[in-house]
């Protein structure tokens, strides 16, 4: 197999091994690492459909992580996809109301981020050994709600690592916040910021490119890396579950071999749907990638006009993991439609940084035909939760409801009856208040634990342990900081 190496979307680094790219997280020039050429999937769907999730993960990840030995990669996969997932399938497919929900929330923190963040710590510590890294790895992450807890759970107590998570203190759900601030592990540190996710993410990116800060870390025996989907080690594992969904449909006789499906993804930072795009590039028979936004519809506007503009009002919604105006992973798609021009990509990203907007050329825009952009506002999101429950007795969370609602609009507009997989990115128990309110239940004066019990009675699904174990968990992380205090806060935790 030909080795796959990586380069920055902005041209500053080339020929980087997979393990080095995973360790580094973000390229030194601020770009994102992308494969210098896409690998080829040589096995047929008929061959792949016989595999379990772990073996499929080995086949797909092995295409991208070519400097890992088979033994190293298998070890990472076996340790990641173990009993911490509450079902053997890892990512089961549920049929409800005429569409197929890919349940990505059966991991430890009941959100799709577990699918990649269960394996990233193992990939990273293996990569550190392969590259002779002696420094302690500091995982620096901004979260809009789910990445934070999944990363904390993944890296907690992992030798040779520390993890620092910044989250918007007023921009996550009650369960999301409680999951983070009660996290155990002396190597974990959680910080609420007085700002939104975009400001947290910008602050983290600035620290990655701050040479003086990196020198201070190096002198103290530390080095930064990232657990956000800007890290290629986070992105590649997400490709696997789109193949898994297709192969499940194939095994169950829902589709025929080679039959195309649509994939609909609730989208914020653009990583999850980019993984679906990479799956299509590898040969997964996908007809249309439906990009679903909430009221912060910057991606919907981009696909409709070719202009990306973050200069707009920021809304806090019931789907907080999508409350994002700077979709970092879109840069990887921009690189593709710019025909691999790092110069063009860098110019557009520079424009975004300076003016808050950029416009792609008509030629670049013509290469976006794989995508359909849609959005659902708060009323439509609540209505979709209610409608799916009333029609199928199936309860979905607000993020999944955004995707389901956008898919309903897509079918109405296009009359496309292609069988569709909807990425169900979080358990409804992670957003109990919003879900119960959408179902017409009274939530005033009810805490999340009482509401969870009522939701269990409605859905006939037990309350996940990820929620019940929070009830008596002590709050361990109480730090709050301003955006400009983020570097000082990091240094304080590291004792520098």
Task: Describe the fold and architecture.
Helix 8 links the parallel strand 6 and strand 7. The model has no long low-confidence stretch (mean pLDDT 95). The protein has a six-stranded mixed sheet with strand order 3-4-14-9-10-13, with helices on both faces. Strands 8-5-6-7-15 form a five-stranded parallel sheet, with helices on both faces. It has a two-stranded antiparallel sheet with strand order 1-2. It has a domain of 247 residues: Rossmann fold, CATH 3.40.50.1100. It has 496 residues and is α/β, with parallel strands linked by helices. It starts with 5 loop residues before the first strand and ends with a helix. The chain has 22 helices and 15 strands. Helix 11 crosses helix 12 and helix 17 crosses helix 19.
Question: Could you name the key traits of this structure?
Answer:
Rossmann fold; five-stranded parallel β-sheet; globular; 496 residues; 15 strands; alpha/beta
CATH architecture of the domain at 93-110 and 233-461: 3-Layer(aba) Sandwich
Q: Remind me, CATH topology of the domain at 93-110 and 233-461?
A: Rossmann fold
Helix content: 40-55%
Q: What percentage of the residues does DSSP assign to strands (E)?
A: 5-15%
Stretches where pLDDT is under 50 for at least 5 consecutive residues are: none
Helix count from the secondary structure assignment? 22
Distance between the termini: 44 Å
What's the shape?
globular
Mean pLDDT: 95
Describe the main β-sheet briefly. 6 strands, mixed
> How large is the radius of gyration?
21 Å
Number of E strands: 15
Secondary structural class = alpha/beta
- Top CATH class of the domain at 93-110 and 233-461: Alpha Beta
What is the strand arrangement across the widest sheet?
3-4-14-9-10-13
